[in-house]
Design brief:
alpha/beta, 5-stranded parallel sheet, 5-stranded antiparallel sheet, 17 strands, elongated
């Protein structure tokens, strides 16, 4: 029998900590809750002492933030699952970096899924880099410098948003086409990335295609309307989106 996963819980609400702890101990096998904390300094000292493999970390804790806790560590050696009560700006940054999160109240199935990722090693190795990229995106006001973390079959790829030419749906997967001819495939669907890339100059021209408007080489109004990207790939524009697309180009 494999040893249990060591878990630490950080939340400023004692009741929330107790509820999560009870759920983990009652419904999930192979877990040992090695510590808990309601504040940053208590959490920092507790994590150093108990060396957990997984930390459930609340984002908003009164005047403090879960991000401030992570900044205290020179290297984030444990896996992190953020917990939050709201869909918020911070959550977009978490998604951008492919970090794990749960919306309160956490369901048993979500907790099991998070623990299963740790057990299968899916969250190992690059957690510190993902956290660093998240902080870098927060700090940089230049969106061209923002990086998105893509989970691929070999692990994770950290790419500049500005290097993405276009995205194409492949069933429940998404193919990314980058400058220089690189192609990456990730298991998230196109709708997920449509929301994530909002505000970065991307547009969904078809059910199966999202383009970076920066890299349009030519737009042809005839034949129903199609665009040519800088790599000379041609894509047709959905009839329902053509008018909006043309209006948007006029404003650029």
């Amino acid at each position: 029998m494999s040893r249990p996963i060591k878990v630490f819980i950080v939340d400023d609400e004692p009741k929330a900590v107790d509820t999560l702890k009870k759920a983990l101990q009652t419904f999930i096998e192979g877990v040992e809750v090695v510590g808990q904390a309601n504040g940053l300094e208590e959490a920092y000292q507790g994590i150093l002492a108990s060396r957990p493999e997984l930390v459930f970390l609340d984002i908003e804790m009164g005047n403090e933030s879960g991000f401030q806790l992570l900044e205290k560590f020179e290297r984030v050696y444990f896996q992190v699952v953020f917990i939050t009560a709201h869909e918020e700006f911070a959550l977009k940054a978490i998604k951008f970096s492919a970090l794990d999160y749960i919306i309160k109240p956490a369901s048993i199935s979500e907790l099991k899924a998070s623990l299963q990722k740790v057990q299968q090693g899916q969250m190992e190795g690059q957690e510190n880099m993902k956290v660093q990229h998240m902080f870098s995106n927060f700090v940089s006001k230049d969106k061209r410098e923002h990086k998105i973390t893509l989970a691929v079959s070999e692990g994770y790829e950290f790419i500049k948003v500005d290097d993405i030419l276009y995205l194409r749906a492949d069933g429940s997967y998404t193919d990314f086409f980058l400058k220089g001819g690189t192609q990456l495939t990730t298991s998230k669907n196109l709708k997920f990335f449509e929301g994530l890339l909002e505000g970065y100059g991307f547009y969904r021209i078809h059910n199966s295609t999202i383009i970076n408007l920066k890299y349009i080489k030519r737009f042809n109004r005839g034949s129903g309307g199609y665009i040519v990207m800088e790599d000379n790939t041609e894509y047709s524009i959905s009839k329902s989106r053509k008018e909006e697309f043309m209006e948007m180009l006029a404003l650029r």
